Amino acid sequence: MANKRVDMPLMAFPTTGEIVPEPLGLVLIFSSWNFPVGLALEPLIGAISAGNTSVLKPSELAPASSSLLTILVPFYLDNKAVMVIEGGAPVAQRLLDIRWDKIFFTGSPRIGRIIMSSAVKHLTPVTLELGGKCPAIVDTLTSSKDREVVAKRIIGGKWVPCNGQGCIAIDYLLVEEKFATAMVDLLKSTLKRFYGENPRESNSLSRIVNKQHFMRLKGLLNDPGVAASIAHGGVVDDDKLYIEPTIMVDPPLDAEIMIEEIFGPLLPIITLKKIEDSIGFINSKPKALAVYIFTRDETLKKRVISETSSGSVTVNDAVIQYVCDTLPFGGIGQSGFGRYHGKFSFDTFSHEKAVMRRPFLDFNFRYPPWNNNKLQFLRSVYNLDYFKLFLLFLGLKK
Q1: pTM over 0.85
Q2: What SS3 class is residue 52?
Q3: Where are the beta strands (DSSP E) in the chain?
Q4: Active-site residue among 42, 134, 162, 167?
Q5: Which of the following is catalytic: 42, 129, 244, 261?
Q6: 8-18 confidence digits (pLDDT tens)
Q7: 324 a catalytic residue
């Protein structure tokens, strides 16, 4: 929160400059349902630390967490500075009709467009943390140990975050044709180690959040081209909103599962002639929130980092970048804009005000500064007594 002194250019001598962070004012925070506590409190911490007053609107799709936040936040925090408001879409729309100094939203691109449309009326700045189809590039690894590690990290990056219901979850894999069968076998055996012979009985696998999302995911599976590509899983239970971890190989690229963010336990594997073709494939799609790459090839790593655009790139792991608060978290393009986590949260909810100070020192010019002759003007500046003393002090003039 401290002011930051900055170096001033020589032409501005004798001035001093600093950057003063100041709160934006009254901010509105919309949190998501898949991580309903963390996605509510983390931006709120940034808003409070920056000195703002805040209104938090938890997701109505996680009613138990929303109710808990409504009880605990007013109990522990100043009600005049922080308020929690529950409700569905009508309440959200009424909040958006009010003028805010900042709106922070975590959710889908569809709702993000509504947030932006409402913010335009008051020219309110927004931070949008949206989703996207996060690809994972898996190189053809020769070491069996490396392959086992990759399989575990892919499952951890796909099904562990709410059974795929996470914006940073792996959306699909890109592998070489010759490696596809081995990749499927590895994932199948590792899934069994994670969730047992019957994943439906596992207490470590989330259900789908509600009937609407369940039917959407079921519709993706019922596409004839997608159904024909299933290599593992595909079992659904309408009553318990359960969908088995499902792997498919080369579903149609024009199917909805390869166009829209999946946000569920379905994992397409797209095969390529060469793994380097993954760069062009990724660049043909909207910019992702995260790109993951598993490889020992240093050249391929550098190419993915330099030749693709995404919110983040993680090498040889997935999702872990989210919990590293020394790295900014945020999207680009359709996956959102703005960043937060750690100090970046403070910056997101602050305005960096430039402050320059100059003393009442009057210099006597030997030549009038308004003279049209530029050379004479420069000589007038150079011949300033104070300026010459300053250069002598710096040892720049004999």
Answers
A1: yes
A2: coil
A3: 4-6, 16-23, 26-30, 53-57, 82-84, 102-106, 126-129, 135-138, 172-176, 230-232, 236-237, 242-243, 246-249, 266-272, 291-294, 313-315, 336-337, 350-357
A4: 167
A5: 129
A6: 988 888 889 99
A7: no
